Structures are given as structure tokens and as C-alpha cells.
Amino acid sequence: MESLKDSGGKKPTPVTNATAANDGTGTAAIITFTPSEYIGKDTITYNVTSSPGNITVSGASSPITVTGLTATQSYTFTVVATTNYGVSSDSVTTNSVAIGIAPGKPTIGTATAGNAQATVAYTAGTPGTGTTTFTATSTPGNFTGTGSSPITVTGLANGTAYTFTVTASNSYGSSTSNPSNSVTPVAPPYFPPYFPPFFPPFFPPFFPPFFPPFFPPFFPPFFPPFFPPSFGPGFK
């Protein structure tokens, strides 16, 4: 093993912000980090080791992908910066990450407008590991709905145009569809309890309590103080 002296008296500082993420394939994780600070004679190699499994992958920079992992297993990873002279930094451990397959990208169907809401149809993509949740999200507003196809999204503003995407997500990742067609929710026509040209309290064809064409106390075409000849004075 070479000495610190061979490395120019410089020891690499530990990496920072080391983070592990599932890559969605079911067999790999992506490790990202902020590089070590090092001023010495040589370059740095970063060694990433899984736990469990002790799978080690080396790289010159972030990110580093570790393959050969087991789906549904959770892993942490240590990251060590090492010079070519064999001088290493202190190790840094990432967060724990569960390995699994993310669901495939849904295929968007047709969005249909309603009253302050819309329904969004979709076709699921390839299945992932475990349970998948489908969420429709509006643009604008970020109103959401979840469920099987079609999904109903409520709370929309009538008269505003919306598009929608559908996101499939599980514990191992997510994928989002392309945007839907644009739809504009509208309120239904207003139907009052009475329909013109007839309004309460009278309904065709009669106007109770009297039936046309006669209306008391006078009967057309004669109105007081005039009476028809057959009912005048001196009638014989």
C-alpha cells in the first residue's frame, strides 16, 4: 500500500450528498454524490459498495450505477474516494433504497368534459413490481383523480380549457403519459320548473277556475252597460 506521502501529503475528503435511487429496472441502483475535494499528485476513483451483497462498482465521477441487485431487496451503499496511490477518504453511507421495477408509461386516451369535471381514459403500460396507482392530473390547476380507467377529475372551473396526464406509480418509481386532448367543462342548461310560454299558476289549455272563451261576469262580445238586442227593453 502506498503512503500518504506518495499522494503528495493529501488525503481525499469524503464525498457529500451521497444518495441512492432505484433505477426502475429491478436489478440496479443509481448512486449520486458531490465529489471529494482533493489536491494531490493523481486523480480520484470512487468505489461504491452495496450492503447486503458487497457488490462494488468503481467510477471516475458521479453518478455510478450498481447492477446485479435483487428486486424487492433494500440496500444501502458506501462511497469511498481513493487516489491511485491507495489513499482513501472516510466512507459515506447512502440512504436505504428498495429495488424493484417501475410501471411502464401509460397510453393516454380521450378526455371528456362534464360539469366542473372531466373523465380521462388511459391504457396501462407494462406492469411494475407490486401495486400500481394511476393518477390523472390537470393542466392548469393540478387537480387530480385516481383509479382505473376512466378517471374522474373534479373541482374544475367551467369555461376553462384543460389537458390531462396520467401517472403510473409504485414503490419503485413512476412514469407519466403524454398530455390528453384539451377539454372545457361547462354547466348544463338551466331548466326552470315551468316551461314557456306557460307559467304558473295557469297551465294550458285552461285558466282555472273558468274555461275560455268565457270569463265572468261578462260574456263577450257584449259588455255592460250595453246588452245584446235580444235582451233589451221591450223585448217581445
Q: How does the major sheet shape up?
A: 5 strands, antiparallel
What is the element string, with H for helices and E for strands?
EEEEEEEEEEEEEEE
Quote the beta fraction.
25-35%
Rg from C-alpha positions? Answer: 40 Å
Low-confidence stretches: 1-7
State the CATH superfamily name of the domain at 16-98: Immunoglobulins
The third-level CATH topology of the domain at 16-98 is Immunoglobulin-like
The tally of beta strands, per DSSP, is 15
Structural class by SSE content: mainly beta
Helicity level: under 10%
Strand-helix topology:
Layout: E1 16-22, E2 29-34, E3 44-51, E4 56-59, E5 64-66, E6 74-83, E7 92-93, E8 97-98, E9 107-113, E10 117-123, E11 133-139, E12 144-146, E13 151-154, E14 163-170, E15 173-176
Antiparallel strand pairs: 1-2, 2-5, 3-4, 3-6, 6-7, 6-8, 9-10, 10-13, 11-12, 11-14, 14-15
3D structure, described in words:
It is a single chain. By secondary structure, the chain is mainly β. Among the domains are: 16-98, Immunoglobulin-like, CATH 2.60.40.10; 107-176, Immunoglobulin-like (Sandwich), CATH 2.60.40. Helix content is 0%, strand content 35%. The chain is built from no helices and 15 strands. The protein has strands at 16-22, 29-34, 44-51, 56-59, 64-66, 74-83, 92-93, 97-98, 107-113, 117-123, 133-139, 144-146, 151-154, 163-170, 173-176. Strands 3, 4, 6, 7 and 8 form a 5-stranded antiparallel sheet that branches. The protein has a 4-stranded antiparallel sheet with strand order 12-11-14-15, with no helix packed on it. The radius of gyration is 40 Å and the shape is elongated. The N and C termini lie far apart (149 Å). 25% of the residues are buried.
